[in-house]
Amino acid sequence: MGCHCDAGHSLTDKLAELEARIAAVEAILQPEEGELDLGLITRLRRVEGEAAQGAIQLAGSVDIGGRRAAWQTIHASEELVTFDPEPVARVLSALGHPIRLQIVLSLLAGPRKASDLEVSLDVGSTGKLYHHLKELVSAGVVVQPRRSEYVVPTPGVIPVLAAIAVVSDLIGPTNFSE
Questions:
Q1: What is the pTM of this model?
Q2: What whole-number distance in Å separates Cα of residue 165 and Cα of residue 177?
Q3: Which residues pair with 68 in a beta bridge?
Q4: Which of 101, 97, 76, 117 is nearest to 161 (CA)?
Q5: How confident is the model at residue 83 (pLDDT cuts 50, 70, 90)?
């Protein structure tokens, strides 16, 4: 294998140039004093100006219930504060009930029949179970692919886990320090 270097540049010069370029990129990507380390992609987007007004980025990749789910989204802050509150509240309400959250967590492992959910979860009665499932389906968090079978659709797996992660950060002991 021969060197594909320019005739006027030695390998040492090329290496020094590459090291200088890497150092310059690393300097740009270093968090500022007191800034939370947001991760490479977010810092790159901030540097490129895509999220100049501020943005929220969420991403994940999981293997759960025999399914592989990968998801990534970025929302400008202005977009988030102007969302229609009705559908957002419907989803938050659906996830906000302890029994419905138990159902969703159970369904993250894959499709389950209502009868299996009733046996594994303490929901009280079949009527209560179907009431909670109806709320989850209505909010779009859960789908019913077949009669009496329910699942969190694969594209919704990581958003559901992200919502749980966000709430865990809200209730965590180290948050909101100024």
A1: 0.67
A2: 18
A3: 63
A4: 101
A5: confident
